[in-house]
UniProtKB/TrEMBL annotation, chain A:
InterPro entries: ABC_transp_permease (IPR001851), BCAA_transport_permease (IPR052157). Keywords: Amino-acid transport, Cell membrane, Membrane, Transmembrane, Transmembrane helix, Transport. It is a multi-pass membrane protein. It is found in: Cell membrane. Belongs to the binding-protein-dependent transport system permease family. LivHM subfamily. The keyword Transmembrane helix applies. One of its GO terms (cellular component) is plasma membrane. Pfam families: BPD_transp_2 (PF02653). Its main location: membrane. The lineage of its organism: Bacteria, Bacillati, Bacillota, Bacilli, Bacillales. GO terms for molecular function: transmembrane transporter activity. This is ABC transporter permease. It comes from Hydrogenibacillus schlegelii.
From TrEMBL, chain B:
GO terms for biological process: L-amino acid transport. Residues 2-237 form the ABC transporter domain. This is ABC transporter ATP-binding protein. Keywords: Amino-acid transport, ATP-binding, Nucleotide-binding, Transport. One of its GO terms (molecular function) is branched-chain amino acid transmembrane transporter activity. Pfam families: ABC_tran. InterPro entries: AAA+_ATPase, ABC_transporter-like_ATP-bd, ABC_transporter-like_CS, BCAA_Transport_ATP-bd_LivF, P-loop_NTPase. The keyword Cytoplasm does not apply. Gene3D superfamilies: P-loop containing nucleotide triphosphate hydrolases (3.40.50.300). It comes from the Bacteria. Belongs to the ABC transporter superfamily.
Amino acid sequence: MDAFSQLLQLLFAGLTVGSIYALIALGFVLTYNVTGILNLAQGEFAMLGALIAVSLVASGIPYGLALVGAIAAVSLIGGLFERLALAPARGASTATYLLITIGFSFAMRGLAIFVWGTQPYALPPFTSDRSFSLLGAVIQTQSLWAVALSVLAFGALEGAFNRTYAGKAMQACVINPVAARLVGIDPKRMALYTLAASAGLGALAGVTVAPISGASYGMGLMLGLKAFVAAVIGGLTNAPAAIAGAYLIGITEALVEGYLSSSYKDAVSFLFLLIILLYRPTGLFARAEGKRV
Amino acid sequence: MLTLNEVNTYHGHLHVLHDITFTVEPGEIFAIVGANGAGKSTLLGTIAGLYVPRRGVITFQGRSLPYGRAERIVRLGLSLVPERRQIFDDLSVRDNLFLGAYHRMRRRDPSVMDDFRQVLRLFPRLESMLDRPGGLLSGGEQQMLAIGRGLMARPKLIMLDEPSLGLAPLIVQEIFRSLVEMREAYGLTVLLVEQNVRAALSIADRAIVLERGRVALAGNARALLEDESVRRTYLGVKGDDVHRRRA
């Protein structure tokens, strides 16, 4: 494999993993924008999605249905999390909410060990497990799915926000919560929908990444942390910037892994986080009070 | 129609409203006037469900309100046009107006379109800027948009918090004319909070004067306009312009 093919290979690997981070980061941004809560359990939704999909497939449910079922189930878990853990704490400090989400992520990981054990599971890829070569680089079909789904999810989210009445009501909630209440929009209900949607996005990331790197109880931690860094790079409120941040991290990780050592891979995102927090705490792409959502 | 009985509201430890009692009759324009910090906005916010009264009773059409539940109170036919307009800046004028009808849109109420056209008849200026983001409108246009958004909820009683704030006198006149028109055209009851005492009292039927969270005076708006202490405190002794006194 010549140097160019190797670079291409690494770039594509970065793009794939970046897409996964992007899906989870979208959930971060969505939740933060609408509720003001930093949900550090976002990565666990990916883990739950992947493992539930594995179990549904194993139980004989048709593959496509199992994926959709897993995403729906995780959305439901996200909604329950909002109702049972976040809503009762209404008006609490940021730190309290943060602790609730961390507690929830521990609980979900514990639950996953209890149900699925610590061993990793495999999920078959969406379409075929064939790979094809492009200019000397080998690309898996599942990687294309990852990239396509992240773009699609972003497009669907933007469309839902900007073109539908419900989306505008949600925007109204973000722009001016008091005025939103005065026209009858219930911010609590919006928080519920938001958590369910964010959880669904996380689950989508989980079922997409599982055929590539497997599914296990602990996968949510790193996915969640890196997606969080991506969201921070984007300033937490800006979805396109968070996606750019996710690709940036994914590609840098892949390059570091390929050219330096895979043991430095995970350090990359935290190095990014440190640099951002030190020099650009409002995010890499921050404009002066830009539009949120 | 709307009755407050010994309503007390606190902001934390601060006792803002003291035993507020008054009744608004159907179809009237009722004004609440007073100086900055007298508790006027807190009073409207308490009625609209932004603040929870600690003591007292508020009834609307004979039923007591679900205190502190703004999103439910607007469904009962009580609409607040908040202070400083609070429009949705990034959303278009059209979106702002239709969001005003939120609780009816979910039921796909066909009368929403009628109300939309009626709001544009009341404020023809908005028609040419329907696709412009609300945040790019002038202050007067934003106030019209905020009132229009309030009307889209099809209220029985509309509350306006300082609609004249920061607007040129000509625009204030236009807005106040629209309030009178609203009452005639929709049979609306209007509860108006104003610092512009003269303008408010000249269109109102009845009014109360709020001082430090208490009802200091109550009565016929014309009579209050003639009242010696009101003239001295809010209008300047010899009818000096209120604006100059406040400057």
